[in-house]
Amino acid sequence: MRIVILGGGPTGLGAAWRLNELDHDDWVICEANDYWGGLAASFQDDRGFVWDFGGHVLFSHYQYFDTVMDTLFKASDGWLVHNREAWIWMQDRFVSYPLQNNIHKLPEQVYWECLEGIIDIQNTGSQKKPKHFGQWIQATFGQGLAKWFLDPYNYKVWAYPTDHLGWSWVGERVAPVALKQILKNAVFQNNDTQWGPNSRFRFPANGGTGAIWKEIALKLPPKKARLNKKVVAIDTKKRVVSFSDQRTENYDILLNTLPLTDFIRLADFEGSLAKVPVLKYSSTHVVGLALKGKTPETLASKCWIYFPENNCPFYRVTVFSNYSPNNVPDIGSQWSLMCEVSESSMKKVDASTVVEDVIQGALNTGLIRDRKSIDHTWYRFEKKAYPTPSITRDEYLVPLSTKLFENNIYSRGRFGAWKYEVGNMDHSFMQGVEFVNTCMGYAEEITLWYPDIVNKPHPGGKKR
To answer: Closest Cα partner for 174 from 114, 101, 224, 113?
Structure first.
């Protein structure tokens, strides 16, 4: 059984790892770029600063994934473990994430509006099924939290209004409302910061997140792991993939991790299968600020910060030098911020001014004091950065997946499956592993088809 894997991100590398582990010899993984990792790759600029493409942190829902990660680097010096400190900057102050547990830190009038909205939904409740994410927010958190944080923030991060998004993806990604805990935090003036599966995460000591995927690729048979292999056509009848270097690969089973819409355009499908599905996505502009001096005390222990207000273009900023001192050349005199700006057809961004806009936003929000502290900037744009869980998404995905399967094609991964709710690095890697397990008859695919199962705490211990 010849298996060809398209794409060398976490999903493709997960499949390759599992095939190699099982001693299945007839496979190859092909990556279009000259580096491994896909959207989880890292880059070093010409002045020695390391940057990720967005704010990645490594946490896991799977013991198998943890075990693989444990084999990559020595625990003593290869991995750094952090307690998550996620914050929100709004109303000219830092508030601990999740906001709904810490609304007592807001100005009194804003606090009351948020609390009143929570009390209202506790008293009335709604039995109607939400039609979209905006209605789900209102029904779950109340009008105050929707107005001050959830609606404006979600527009900034998704680049679509909340009434264009579905809500079935939410799962563990949004903290639930617990009125009793909210009031307790207010009475005792607590900072409640420990909610969520990533309250502790690890990060490579060297090379950024991309070091993980480089190391996995290095452990694969060199002849089977190929870079600079860009797909130009797929003959699904003869089961042949053609590449830009004029070479081809025959397959019995094809694992696609390219964006699903791109894959459909490359293949020779006919009829309904040839129609490119209407799937939404958002783009991301990542702006790195390489800074002189020492990290300010206000940011010295923070991991990342959310920004819901319109005084800055970014929705999230990662204090990237806090993840590893080796992300900058000299941690004693340098530090770094990594800022993310979303874009879509409904939220346009001027690429010619986005770096300057980010700098001004950093000044507006007090992240930096003046422009003199900036040594240089780094910029990267990714057209397809986040698959949008739009209202109509599943109408296209389920029947399309069935038709691809009938052609011995599996489309998996963040954009291959187009499922944000299972698009983290651990999810993506395990989609590749589970694809192999299914092909070999060992087990069915859980991650892709049962997100609610993999995203909840499991019996027998705390989720890692």
So the answer is: 101
Question: What are the Cα distances from residue 73, in Å, to 68, 69, 70, 163?
Answer: 10, 8, 7, 44
CATH of residue 299: 3.90.660.10
> pLDDT tens-digit profile of 26-79?
999 999 999 999 999 999 999 999 999 988 888 888 999 999 999 998 766 799
* Domain of 404, in residue numbers: 3-39+211-278+390-454
pTM: 0.92
Number of domains in the chain: 3
The reported pLDDT for the residue numbered 424 is 93
Count CB-CB contacts under 10 A for residue 352.
Answer: 7
Q: Are residues 291 and 328 in the same domain?
A: yes
Q: What angle do CA 106, 107, 111 make, to 5 degrees?
A: 65
Q: Confidence class of residue 422 from pLDDT cuts 50, 70 and 90?
A: very high
Q: How confident is the model at residue 176 (pLDDT cuts 50, 70, 90)?
A: low
Closest CA to 416 of 264, 267, 220: 264
Question: What is the per-residue pLDDT for 462?
Answer: 42
Residue 304 tokens read as: 């990342």
Do both 357 and 399 map to the same domain?
Answer: no
Q: What is the pLDDT of residues 71-95, one digit of tens each?
A: 998 766 799 989 889 999 999 999 9
In this structure, the answer to whether residues 379 and 395 fall within a common structural domain is no
* Helix 10-21 / helix 210-218 crossing angle, nearest 10 deg: 30
